[in-house]
Design brief:
Layout (H helix, E strand, L loop, with lengths): L1 E2 L12 E2 L4 H12 L10 H15 L6 E4 L5 H8 L4 E5 L2 H9 L8 E3 L12 E7 L7 H14 E12 L8 E3 L5 E4 L5 E2 L2 H10 L2 E9 L1 H4 L3 H9 L7 E8 L8
Parallel strand pairs: 2-9, 3-4, 3-6, 4-5, 6-7
Antiparallel strand pairs: 1-10, 7-12, 8-9, 11-12
Protein backbone atom coordinates (compact mmCIF):
# COMPACT_ATOMS: atom_id res chain seq x y z
CA UNK A 1 0.00 0.00 0.00
CA UNK A 2 1.97 2.97 -1.29
CA UNK A 3 1.94 6.39 0.35
CA UNK A 4 3.20 9.80 -0.71
CA UNK A 5 6.99 10.01 -0.71
CA UNK A 6 9.63 12.12 -2.37
CA UNK A 7 13.31 11.79 -3.00
CA UNK A 8 15.60 13.40 -0.43
CA UNK A 9 16.81 16.78 -1.62
CA UNK A 10 14.28 16.99 -4.48
CA UNK A 11 12.18 19.63 -2.72
CA UNK A 12 13.23 22.97 -1.15
CA UNK A 13 14.14 22.87 2.53
CA UNK A 14 11.26 25.17 3.43
CA UNK A 15 8.68 22.55 2.38
CA UNK A 16 7.10 19.82 4.50
CA UNK A 17 4.71 16.97 3.79
CA UNK A 18 1.20 17.89 4.87
CA UNK A 19 -0.14 15.72 7.70
CA UNK A 20 -3.73 15.01 6.80
CA UNK A 21 -6.17 14.66 9.70
CA UNK A 22 -9.96 14.48 9.67
CA UNK A 23 -10.34 18.26 10.08
CA UNK A 24 -8.07 19.00 7.11
CA UNK A 25 -9.71 16.36 4.94
CA UNK A 26 -13.13 17.86 5.68
CA UNK A 27 -11.84 21.36 4.91
CA UNK A 28 -10.42 20.20 1.56
CA UNK A 29 -13.74 18.72 0.48
CA UNK A 30 -15.76 21.64 1.77
CA UNK A 31 -13.75 23.80 -0.61
CA UNK A 32 -13.94 21.31 -3.49
CA UNK A 33 -17.69 20.94 -3.10
CA UNK A 34 -18.15 24.69 -3.22
CA UNK A 35 -16.55 24.89 -6.68
CA UNK A 36 -19.05 23.95 -9.43
CA UNK A 37 -16.20 23.32 -11.88
CA UNK A 38 -14.89 20.53 -9.61
CA UNK A 39 -18.02 18.40 -10.13
CA UNK A 40 -16.88 17.01 -13.50
CA UNK A 41 -13.83 15.49 -11.80
CA UNK A 42 -15.87 13.11 -9.67
CA UNK A 43 -15.17 9.57 -10.82
CA UNK A 44 -18.71 8.33 -10.17
CA UNK A 45 -20.25 10.79 -12.62
CA UNK A 46 -19.12 8.58 -15.52
CA UNK A 47 -18.49 5.25 -13.75
CA UNK A 48 -21.65 4.88 -11.65
CA UNK A 49 -23.87 3.23 -14.32
CA UNK A 50 -21.39 0.40 -14.95
CA UNK A 51 -20.60 -0.15 -11.26
CA UNK A 52 -24.22 -0.16 -10.10
CA UNK A 53 -25.17 -2.64 -12.83
CA UNK A 54 -22.34 -4.99 -11.87
CA UNK A 55 -23.15 -4.73 -8.16
CA UNK A 56 -26.85 -5.46 -8.63
CA UNK A 57 -26.04 -8.58 -10.66
CA UNK A 58 -24.19 -10.23 -7.79
CA UNK A 59 -26.15 -8.91 -4.79
CA UNK A 60 -29.26 -10.35 -3.24
CA UNK A 61 -32.44 -8.38 -2.57
CA UNK A 62 -34.52 -6.92 -1.18
CA UNK A 63 -32.21 -3.96 -1.56
CA UNK A 64 -31.53 -0.94 0.59
CA UNK A 65 -28.30 0.84 -0.28
CA UNK A 66 -25.90 3.29 1.38
CA UNK A 67 -23.46 5.37 -0.66
CA UNK A 68 -20.57 6.46 1.60
CA UNK A 69 -18.77 9.55 0.36
CA UNK A 70 -21.54 10.24 -2.13
CA UNK A 71 -19.94 13.39 -3.55
CA UNK A 72 -22.25 14.74 -6.26
CA UNK A 73 -24.72 11.84 -5.81
CA UNK A 74 -24.10 9.96 -9.07
CA UNK A 75 -24.39 6.50 -7.48
CA UNK A 76 -27.61 7.51 -5.73
CA UNK A 77 -29.17 8.68 -8.97
CA UNK A 78 -28.35 5.34 -10.62
CA UNK A 79 -29.75 3.35 -7.69
CA UNK A 80 -32.95 5.35 -7.37
CA UNK A 81 -33.50 5.12 -11.13
CA UNK A 82 -33.52 1.34 -10.59
CA UNK A 83 -36.02 1.64 -7.72
CA UNK A 84 -33.43 0.80 -5.05
CA UNK A 85 -34.17 2.70 -1.79
CA UNK A 86 -30.92 4.52 -1.06
CA UNK A 87 -29.22 7.01 1.25
CA UNK A 88 -26.05 8.95 0.55
CA UNK A 89 -23.71 10.48 3.11
CA UNK A 90 -20.78 12.83 2.80
CA UNK A 91 -18.61 14.60 5.38
CA UNK A 92 -18.74 17.83 3.34
CA UNK A 93 -21.79 20.05 3.73
CA UNK A 94 -21.01 21.73 0.39
CA UNK A 95 -21.03 18.36 -1.39
CA UNK A 96 -24.30 17.42 0.32
CA UNK A 97 -25.79 20.64 -1.07
CA UNK A 98 -24.31 19.91 -4.51
CA UNK A 99 -25.81 16.41 -4.54
CA UNK A 100 -29.22 17.70 -3.47
CA UNK A 101 -29.12 20.41 -6.12
CA UNK A 102 -28.62 17.79 -8.83
CA UNK A 103 -31.34 15.46 -7.62
CA UNK A 104 -34.19 14.45 -9.93
CA UNK A 105 -37.72 15.60 -9.21
CA UNK A 106 -38.52 12.50 -7.12
CA UNK A 107 -35.66 13.34 -4.77
CA UNK A 108 -32.67 11.76 -3.10
CA UNK A 109 -31.84 11.31 0.56
CA UNK A 110 -28.43 12.86 1.21
CA UNK A 111 -27.08 13.49 4.72
CA UNK A 112 -23.95 15.07 6.15
CA UNK A 113 -22.30 12.39 8.27
CA UNK A 114 -18.93 10.89 9.20
CA UNK A 115 -18.19 7.61 7.40
CA UNK A 116 -16.39 6.37 10.51
CA UNK A 117 -19.41 7.02 12.73
CA UNK A 118 -22.44 6.11 10.66
CA UNK A 119 -25.77 7.28 12.14
CA UNK A 120 -27.57 4.01 11.33
CA UNK A 121 -28.45 0.89 13.28
CA UNK A 122 -26.67 -2.37 12.55
CA UNK A 123 -27.57 -4.68 9.67
CA UNK A 124 -29.96 -2.22 8.03
CA UNK A 125 -28.50 -2.12 4.49
CA UNK A 126 -28.07 -4.76 1.80
CA UNK A 127 -25.44 -2.77 -0.12
CA UNK A 128 -22.73 -0.25 0.79
CA UNK A 129 -20.88 1.66 -1.93
CA UNK A 130 -17.47 3.30 -1.36
CA UNK A 131 -16.34 4.72 -4.68
CA UNK A 132 -12.92 6.43 -4.64
CA UNK A 133 -12.99 6.86 -0.86
CA UNK A 134 -10.32 4.71 0.77
CA UNK A 135 -7.40 6.41 -1.01
CA UNK A 136 -8.39 9.67 0.73
CA UNK A 137 -8.23 8.21 4.26
CA UNK A 138 -5.32 7.49 6.61
CA UNK A 139 -5.04 3.77 7.37
CA UNK A 140 -6.60 3.99 10.85
CA UNK A 141 -9.57 6.00 9.58
CA UNK A 142 -10.02 3.62 6.65
CA UNK A 143 -10.12 0.71 9.10
CA UNK A 144 -12.86 2.43 11.10
CA UNK A 145 -14.87 3.15 7.95
CA UNK A 146 -14.73 -0.50 6.86
CA UNK A 147 -15.73 -1.63 10.34
CA UNK A 148 -18.75 0.66 10.11
CA UNK A 149 -19.64 -0.75 6.70
CA UNK A 150 -19.55 -4.26 8.17
CA UNK A 151 -21.71 -3.14 11.08
CA UNK A 152 -24.52 -1.61 8.99
CA UNK A 153 -24.55 -4.37 6.34
CA UNK A 154 -26.77 -7.37 6.86
CA UNK A 155 -25.05 -10.81 6.70
CA UNK A 156 -24.47 -11.63 3.05
CA UNK A 157 -24.77 -7.95 2.13
CA UNK A 158 -22.62 -6.43 -0.61
CA UNK A 159 -19.70 -4.01 -0.28
CA UNK A 160 -18.63 -2.19 -3.45
CA UNK A 161 -15.23 -0.46 -3.42
CA UNK A 162 -13.23 1.34 -6.09
CA UNK A 163 -9.82 3.01 -5.92
CA UNK A 164 -7.34 4.23 -8.52
CA UNK A 165 -5.25 1.35 -9.87
CA UNK A 166 -1.70 1.23 -8.50
CA UNK A 167 -1.41 5.01 -8.49
CA UNK A 168 1.98 6.70 -8.33
CA UNK A 169 1.13 9.35 -5.75
CA UNK A 170 4.24 11.39 -6.52
CA UNK A 171 3.06 12.33 -10.00
CA UNK A 172 0.31 14.58 -8.62
CA UNK A 173 1.98 16.38 -5.73
CA UNK A 174 1.82 20.14 -5.37
CA UNK A 175 3.18 22.72 -2.92
CA UNK A 176 1.48 25.55 -1.08
CA UNK A 177 3.79 28.51 -1.82
CA UNK A 178 2.75 30.26 1.40
CA UNK A 179 3.27 27.56 4.03
CA UNK A 180 5.42 25.04 2.12
CA UNK A 181 3.02 22.12 2.60
CA UNK A 182 3.47 19.34 0.02
CA UNK A 183 0.38 17.29 -0.80
CA UNK A 184 -1.42 15.31 -3.49
CA UNK A 185 -3.52 17.78 -5.47
CA UNK A 186 -6.70 15.70 -5.11
CA UNK A 187 -5.89 14.61 -1.54
CA UNK A 188 -4.92 10.99 -2.21
CA UNK A 189 -3.03 9.39 0.67
CA UNK A 190 -2.74 5.73 -0.31
CA UNK A 191 -2.32 3.61 -3.43
CA UNK A 192 -3.72 0.09 -3.80
CA UNK A 193 -3.32 -2.98 -5.96
CA UNK A 194 -5.82 -5.84 -6.05
CA UNK A 195 -4.07 -8.17 -3.54
CA UNK A 196 -3.72 -5.36 -1.00
CA UNK A 197 -7.33 -4.24 -1.44
CA UNK A 198 -8.58 -7.82 -1.15
CA UNK A 199 -6.56 -8.41 2.03
CA UNK A 200 -7.87 -5.17 3.52
CA UNK A 201 -11.55 -6.00 3.11
CA UNK A 202 -11.02 -9.59 4.29
CA UNK A 203 -9.59 -8.26 7.56
CA UNK A 204 -12.88 -6.48 8.13
CA UNK A 205 -15.20 -9.45 7.71
CA UNK A 206 -15.75 -9.63 3.94
CA UNK A 207 -15.28 -12.26 1.25
CA UNK A 208 -14.31 -10.97 -2.19
CA UNK A 209 -16.76 -11.93 -4.95
CA UNK A 210 -15.23 -9.91 -7.80
CA UNK A 211 -11.93 -8.06 -8.07
CA UNK A 212 -10.68 -6.59 -11.32
CA UNK A 213 -8.98 -3.65 -12.92
CA UNK A 214 -11.22 -1.59 -15.20
CA UNK A 215 -10.35 1.06 -17.77
CA UNK A 216 -13.19 3.49 -17.08
CA UNK A 217 -11.75 5.95 -19.58
CA UNK A 218 -12.28 3.26 -22.20
CA UNK A 219 -15.83 2.46 -21.06
CA UNK A 220 -16.88 6.12 -21.14
CA UNK A 221 -15.37 6.80 -24.58
CA UNK A 222 -17.43 6.93 -27.82
CA UNK A 223 -17.58 3.63 -29.70
CA UNK A 224 -15.06 4.56 -32.44
CA UNK A 225 -12.51 5.58 -29.82
CA UNK A 226 -13.15 2.38 -27.83
CA UNK A 227 -12.53 0.32 -30.96
CA UNK A 228 -9.31 2.20 -31.69
CA UNK A 229 -8.06 1.76 -28.12
CA UNK A 230 -8.96 -1.94 -28.15
CA UNK A 231 -7.25 -2.61 -31.47
CA UNK A 232 -4.22 -0.58 -30.44
CA UNK A 233 -3.80 -2.44 -27.15
CA UNK A 234 -4.36 0.79 -25.24
CA UNK A 235 -6.96 -0.51 -22.77
CA UNK A 236 -5.20 -0.16 -19.41
CA UNK A 237 -6.96 -0.40 -16.01
CA UNK A 238 -7.46 3.04 -14.54
CA UNK A 239 -9.26 1.86 -11.41
CA UNK A 240 -9.79 -1.20 -9.24
CA UNK A 241 -13.29 -2.56 -8.69
CA UNK A 242 -13.88 -4.91 -5.77
CA UNK A 243 -17.25 -6.36 -4.80
CA UNK A 244 -17.36 -8.34 -1.56
CA UNK A 245 -19.92 -10.12 0.59
CA UNK A 246 -20.23 -9.58 4.34
CA UNK A 247 -19.53 -12.83 6.16
CA UNK A 248 -22.18 -14.10 8.51
CA UNK A 249 -21.41 -13.69 12.19
CA UNK A 250 -18.81 -10.97 11.54
CA UNK A 251 -19.04 -7.42 12.89
CA UNK A 252 -16.08 -5.67 11.31
CA UNK A 253 -12.60 -6.94 12.05
CA UNK A 254 -12.09 -10.05 14.19
Amino acid sequence: MATLTHAAGSLPEWTHELEWNERRIRAFWEFAGSRPAFAHRFFAESAAPYIVRRALRVSRGPHRALDVGTGTGAVLRELVARAVPSIGIDVSSSLVRAARARQPSWGLTVLQADAGRLPFRGRCFSMVFMLELLEHLPSAVGDRVLDEAARVLRPGGTLVVTTPAVEDLNTEITICPECGAVFHRTQHLRSFDLPILDALVRRHGFHTVLAKGVDFNYLSSPLPLRMAKLLGGLVVPSNLLLIASRLRGMEGRP
